[in-house]
Design a protein that fits this description.
The complex is a heterodimer.
Chain A (H helix, E strand, L loop, with lengths): L5 H10 L4 H15 L6 E4 L1 H16 L10 E5 L26 H8 L3 E6 L33 H8 L5 E6 L5 H7 L2 E4 L19 E6 L2 H11 L29 E5 L9 H16 L3 E5 L7 H16 L18 H12 L2 H14 L5 H24 L2 E5 L15 H5 L6 H6 L3 E9 L2 E9 L4 H14 L15
Parallel strand pairs in A: 2-3, 7-8, 7-9
Antiparallel strand pairs in A: 1-3, 4-6, 5-6, 5-10, 9-11, 10-11
Helix pairs in contact in A: 2-3, 5-6, 7-15, 9-11, 9-12
Chain B lengths: L4 H10 L9 H15 L34 H5 L5 E2 L2 E2 L7
Antiparallel strand pairs in B: 1-2
The chains are: A alpha/beta, B mainly alpha.
């Protein structure tokens, strides 16, 4: 059962092959047996899951099944789930029981999805390796000495290890796509504003966006159909009809123009990664796509721009954690300043503190124009590059990550080196564009992903191209030997 | 831009963080490295460019001025570190 995709599970539930309660219970057992070695879950919500599965089975027996009725999923522990700990991977929120559901959580519950638990993540989504989690790092199911990527490493690893067929995740600079690449699964960051951010713990509000991680583009389409949609509770959520992404998956991609940024395909690319991307592009050409060179002249500025904008917004967002209303509070505070300072210092990890310090610096009087305002201007240049490139191309392709999964500790000592991990993924967040990663090969037994970036709100076109690629290849069907095979 | 340990201590104070004495040097180094990395933005000519604060460039959506939130004080205070008679408790601010 654990090898089934969401599409297959929906078909099996419809034909009565098994019930939601049966697959839910089988996956919960699988998580309990296998996850201690991976650490991809922070919390399991067994009782709620079984109750939701029974409710889904009842709906189905009454002929009222729709959407994702009865399909097991997991939520990244950044989404508020009423009555359940929502930690954001931080000691600060280790004791935080969310008093409400995130809109995305509500949407998935309304479509009948069954939440098995909350997945591990880098602290407040700040990291590319899951090493900053208060709950310890997630291990990559392909090689447990290696990182799963981050920050949505728990969601990616859980899907890769076949513990759950799909999971929610968030992406501020690559946090859906980079772990999807490193774990050999498919992940999609929607257009900024496509999915409500209400109840999603904020990191950098102008960049954060929620999306799905699953095995296939088809499953990402199914998840996104339930996740997306207008929400008055998020002032940046866009009021725009949600397309039926599944309906266009089978369309031909004949004539699709795929842009290759010359800044990325310039010889700097890792040779083995480059070969796999070339092979993938060849498949897309066989399917009728044409390849064109595009120019992203400001691409190399994406990382420095991000490391002004994201820390600035994070230092502002995280100022709410003061030890007064919820979250961690230090023992025996001397006075109010001591309460704030010690609560924050004892509960935030090193990377979070580092970003708060950088953000505080770039926003401080006298430096604001030189850093934050200048970064916002460069951000517009980056966005304009894409607008121009999309005159020539319908999608832009590149590797998702620099390389396959690296070993624990390999990059954690040097933040600048870790930040380079997001070289190919950050620009889409800067410009608010949808982007996704899909498996396109193995190097030394470890998966690697190809990235697509699309025009604003053109998730359907991207999913269509990814699905057509996956119809012609089987990289997305591979699983780590320990966690796959046997049905 | 390289910072001094004193400048980092001042930043930490502004952010209501404290840095352990044994970590001051490494924090000063890593924050300085990041500032050095972002300094390359200064070389870009942006004199004619308007800042982009939000990827969609939209105006703030307005809504009718109506009460939409119910009072959930008790629910919210259940997860607070210290409350008394509906109030959040903090150390004494004035003697």
């Amino acid at each position: 059962m654990h090898n089934k995709t969401i599409r297959e599970i929906l078909d099996d539930l419809a034909s009565g092959e098994y019930s939601s309660r049966e697959i839910t219970s089988a996956l919960l057992t699988r998580i309990k047996n296998l996850d201690p070695a991976l650490n991809s879950f922070i919390s399991l919500t067994e009782d709620q899951a079984l109750a939701a599965a029974e409710a889904a089975d009842a709906l189905r027996s009454q002929g009222n099944a729709r959407g994702l009725c009865g399909v097991p999923v997991a939520h990244k522990d950044i989404f508020c789930t009423k009555g359940v700990r929502t930690s954001a991977g931080s000691k600060m929120l280790d004791n935080f029981i969310a008093p409400y559901d995130a809109t995305l959580v509500r949407h998935l519950a309304e479509s009948g999805a069954v939440c098995l638990g909350k997945t591990n993540m880098d602290e407040f989504a700040m990291g590319s390796s899951n090493e900053t989690s208060f709950y310890g790092p997630v291990k990559n199911p392909w090689d447990t000495e290696r990182v799963p990527g981050g920050s949505s490493g728990g969601s990616a690893a859980a899907v890769a290890a076949r513990l759950v067929p799909g999971a929610t995740a968030t992406d501020t600079g690559g946090s859906i796509r980079q772990p999807a690449s490193l774990c050999g699964v498919t992940g999609l960051k929607p257009t900024y504003g496509r999915v409500s951010r209400y109840g999603m713990i904020a990191f950098a509000s102008s960049l954060d966006q929620a999306g799905p991680i699953a095995r296939t583009a088809e499953d990402c389409a199914l998840l996104l159909e339930s996740m997306a949609g207008f929400d008055a509770m998020d002032s940046t959520c866009i009021d725009k009809e949600v397309p039926n992404y599944s309906a266009s998956l089978a369309d031909s991609i004949r004539g699709l123009r795929i842009g290759l940024p010359k800044q990325y395909f310039n010889g700097d690319i890792n040779a083995e990664v480059g070969t796999l991307i070339d092979n993938a592009l060849e498949e897309l050409k066989n399917a009728g796509a044409t390849l064109v060179e595009v120019d992203l002249p400001h691409a190399e500025l994406a990382i420095p721009t991000y490391y002004v904008v994201a820390p600035a917004e994070c230092s502002t967002n995280l100022s709410r954690y003061d030890g007064v209303r919820y979250g961690y509070r230090c023992d025996d505070p001397r006075d109010l300043t001591d309460l704030y300072t010690r609560s924050r210092s004892e509960a935030f990890g090193d990377e979070v503190k580092r970003r708060i310090l950088v953000g505080t610096y770039v926003l401080s009087a006298g430096f604001y124009d030189a850093y934050y305002r200048q970064a916002q201007k460069v951000r517009r240049l980056i966005q304009q590059d894409y607008i121009t490139a999309f005159d020539k191309a319908d999608l832009i392709a590149s590797p998702t990550a620099l390389s396959t999964a690296f070993k624990f500790g390999e990059k954690s000592a040097n933040p600048i080196e870790m930040y380079q991990e997001d070289l190919y993924t950050i620009p889409a967040n800067m410009a608010g564009l949808p982007a996704m990663s899909m498996p396109c090969g193995l190097i030394g037994g470890l998966p690697i992903g190809m990235q697509f970036v699309g025009r604003q709100f053109e998730e359907a076109r991207m999913l269509n191209a990814a699905h057509q690629y996956q119809m012609r290849t089987d990289w997305h069907t591979l699983s780590p030997s320990v966690y796959g095979s046997a049905k | 831009m390289a910072l001094t340990p004193d400048a980092v201590a001042k930043l930490a104070e502004l952010a209501r963080l404290s840095i352990d004495s044994q970590n001051v040097e490494s924090t000063t180094g890593s924050v300085s490295d990041i500032l050095h990395m972002i300094d390359q933005l200064k070389q870009v000519d942006t004199s004619e460019i308007a800042p982009l604060s939000h990827p969609m460039d939209l105006a703030q959506r307005l809504r009718a001025d109506q009460v939409t939130e119910p009072n959930q004080r008790e629910e919210f205070q259940e997860i607070a570190p210290a409350v008394e008679r509906g109030l959040y408790l903090v150390p004494r601010v004035i003697e």
